[in-house]
Amino acid sequence: MPKRHTIIYPGSFDPPTNGHLDLIERAAALFDEVIVAVLIHDRKNPLFTVDERLDMLRTATSELQNVQVECFEGLLVDFARRKDARLILRGIRAVSDYEYELQMALMNRKLSPSLETVFMLPAEAYSYLSSRLVKEVWGLGGDIHELVPAVVEQRLDQKRKKT
Ligand code: PNS
User: Fold this and answer.
1) pTM for this structure?
2) N or C: which end of the chain has fewer CB within 10 A?
């Protein structure tokens, strides 16, 4: 039987953006299985809880049969080992992303030499988009309709009504 290729797409996803979704769709078309992995990371003071992020990602990817959404704690390489995956997916939007991504990829390779990091480019239209900017624009009352999946826009609306 040919080998199945599972790729892990790790991140904070606070919140997921259309850029994340674009990359997930591209990966789903290329690999047998895509595991979107949300880091459980208490120090970052996130806007959304891990459960909320899992829920938004699951809703936004519900049409993609080979995409699973999970969370992980600790080292990414250990999570990849538990999932029997040898590929990590990261998006690169601009040259400014490269240094941080290079460091992470090389550190992960040091920790687990058989793990490969695959870099993919999101659609050009999303090359300026980040979760941080979405939160900033939303926080200041700007329109984020074209920047995030519908479910994320709904959750942001709900959050605004609660505050
Ligand atoms: O969306 P982000 O915040 O850029 O994602 C960063 C993430 C989650 C990929 C990275 O922080 C990570 O893998 N954290 C897990 C801890 C770990 O393995 N650290 C060593 C790798 S450099």
Assistant:
1) 0.96
2) N
- Active-site hit among 20, 53, 90, 155: 20
The residues facing 67 across adjacent strands are 34
3-state SS class at 69: strand
pLDDT in tens, 87-101: 999 999 998 899 999
Q: Quick one: average pLDDT of 30-56? A: 93
Q: Tell me which residue of 6, 8, 5, 33 sits closest to 104, measured CA to CA.
A: 8
Indicate which atom in ligand 1 lies nearest the CA of residue 37: 8
Assess whether the C-beta atom of 112 lies below 6 angstroms from ligand 1: no
The pLDDT assigned to 162 comes to 80
Tell me whether residue 15 is exposed, middle or buried, using C-beta atoms within 10 angstroms of its C-beta: 0 to 12, 13 to 18, 19 or more: buried
Helix, strand or coil for residue 70? strand
Q: Of residues 91 and 44, which shows the higher confidence score?
A: 91
Alpha carbon distance 50, 24 (integer Å): 18
CB 119 within 8 A of CB 69: no
